[in-house]
Structure formats: C-alpha cells, structure tokens
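Hello forum,

I keep getting stuck at the same step: I have a sequence, I want structure tokens, and every attempt I make locally crashes halfway through. Rather than fight my setup again tonight, could one of you with a working pipeline run this one for me? It's a single chain of 399 residues.
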Amino acid sequence: MDSDGPRISLFTEEYAADPHRAYDEMRGKYGSLVPVELSPGIPATLIIGYHTALRILNDPDHFPADPRTWQQNVPGECPILPMLEWRPNALRSAGVEHLRYRQANLVAIGGVDLHALHATVERVAIPLINTFCGDGTADLISQYAFPLTFAVLNEMLGCPADIGQQVATGMAAIFEGVNADKGNAMLTDALLELTTRKRKEPGDDITSRLLAHPAGLTDVEMIHQLVTLYGAGIEPEQNLIVNTLLLMLTDQRFAGNLLGGSLSTRDALDEVLFTDPPMANYCVSYPRQPMLIDGVWLPAHQPVVISMSGCNNDPAISAGEYTDNRSHLAWSLGPHACPARSVAYLIAQEAIDQILDALPEMRLGVPAVEQLNWRPGPFHRALVSLPVTFPKSPPLHVF
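Reply #2:
Ran it on my machine without issues. Output:
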C-alpha cells in the first residue's frame, strides 16, 4: 500500500451522505484494499472485498487486534484515539489475554434472561412513546431510540441512573470525536464508580457476573470491559433501530407492513444488517509484519479496517436476497465476533415492534429521504435525526 499516495477521507460529510457510491468508486480504482484516512493524518487500509475480509478476520495470528505499537506514534489529541487505543479487554487484545477477557464476557452476557429482556424493552418503550404520541410528531432518535437503548443497557449492566448519565455523555464525546479526551476521562470515572458499587452490592446483572468470573478482573480491567459493552450497546444498537425504522418507513415492501403487509421487522433487520449496518467500518487489526494480500503490501502495525458495509455489498457475493440470510459481516466473525448478537437483535426487534404497534400510521417527517442528514465519522452509519409524523394518539396503558 503506497503510504505517500492520495487517501480517501472517511470523515467527510460527502462520504457520510453516500457511502455506497464511495465504495463503488473505491472498488473501481483500488479493488478490495483501499488507502484511506480515518482522521486527518491517520492512515489506514479499508477492506471492501468480502472474501478478503474473511481471510483477515479468521487470521488473528497475522492480524491481531492489539494496537499498542501503532499508537506509540499517534498524538494524544487524535479524536479517534479513544475508539482505537489499547484497552485491557477482548476487543483490543490478542492471544491468551483475549481468551481470558472474552470468556468472562461470554459468561456475563450469556446470563441475560432473553424472556425478561422482552418485558424490559416494553416497560421502557411505552413511557417513552407516551411522551410524544399526543404531539403528532417526533424525532425517533432523541426521543425514542437513544433513551430506550440507554435505559435497557443500564438495566442489563445494573447501572443506576446517575452513573449512566455520565457514561452517556462520555461515550457521545468519544464517538463524535469532539472533546474525546474529556469524554474518555468522564467515562472512566463513571465506570470505576459502577465497579466499586457492584463489588459491595452485586446483583443479577452483567457487571456483577463479570466481577464474579474466575478470570478475577481488576478494577482497571472491569472499566475496560464495561467500555466495550457500552460502546457496542448504545451507538450501534441505536443506529440499528433507526436505520431499520427508516427502511420500514420509506420502502413500500415494508411500509405496507405497518398496516398489515407481508414483510416483517425481522426481514427489515436482516436487510439493514447487510445494506446499512450500524457500524459501517470497524473490526480493526494491526499486522505484526508486512503482509501481501491480493497483490497489495499492508504495512506492519498500521490499522486494517474491515468495511462491513462495503464487504456486505461486494458484487462478488451480493445477490440482493436478505431474508434469513446471516452471511453478512455486521456482527464481525472469527475470534472477535460480537458475543451479544442475540441480545442486540432482540432489543432492536422489540423496540421497533413497540413503536410500530403504537403508531401504525407513522410516516417520514420530511418530503424525501435525501433531506435526512447523516453524521460524519469513519466508523458509524448514523442519522442526525429521524423526524416522523403520525395521527395524535392517547397515551398507552403502562403495565
């Protein structure tokens, strides 16, 4: 990969507005491996070929996720550093360390009662819907998807509201790359407080199960397990709910379903996980040595980023059939595959069903999809807002 040649910026408004056109242009010019910038002055290689991604994701020995050598030369004020820097957790570790952290997380997440989670989402969703159902208009991000995702995740982690608010503010700063260093510090302080409280008074929650695991996680390690859980549990989950609602509100195959059509929420989720996954580009690795892939040399210790969106829509594998198709990379795969797929899928499906059941005549609140704005950033696929209109409705009964 030519380190001195031109690179495509993944943080511009132009890229955010139409990433699929960008992937097509990348593919025509570069093939499966694309020289990009994740942030000004931060080079990386973006993988947009499905089969190339499979090779890399299934080869952690040559493509480890540990960024420590890379980040030695990255300035501390780099806005995306909190998203990529080394942490003692499964996402940013390799080998024995990765296995230790991953096993603890698998047990902790595996203890979530999915039947009870259905009820939790409903219990959170209905009061949120009641705050705007009488208005006839709403923004489904700020008024529904974000507060719902946040509240459900806090409950699964056993996090009280006061700590949770600090977590949300810190995570937002990290994802947006605005005051990311301050956001990182706020997040760390909040999660240390949560860990301290749960050591004293454990409960039936993910945090307590992590603390009880034989891995014997320290306070510092606990902070970084929780960082990963919040990072994966707020922004991507919110985007999955919103991107799926957008599809269902604007595509006649699904829009008809709001009043009795044939395609389901599950069908819509499957399609969005292919076409507009909530994390468009991530699954970052750092080759230990120069690697020759598809005729291109990847430099040692430089980020290799998998474009889940680009790979899912690779013409080599994309047939346009999404229903019950789980071959997408939205959850990643290999040793770093998302351990909370069933939990995330359930929350999204239940959240979407709750609001469509409550407001079945809901419609997009702008004349055309093109008038919606997408948030710039190298990793997420996220709308700024999702305005909707609907007939004013009385409050739902709260059980």
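The chain has a mean pLDDT of 92. If your local run keeps crashing, start a new thread with the error log.
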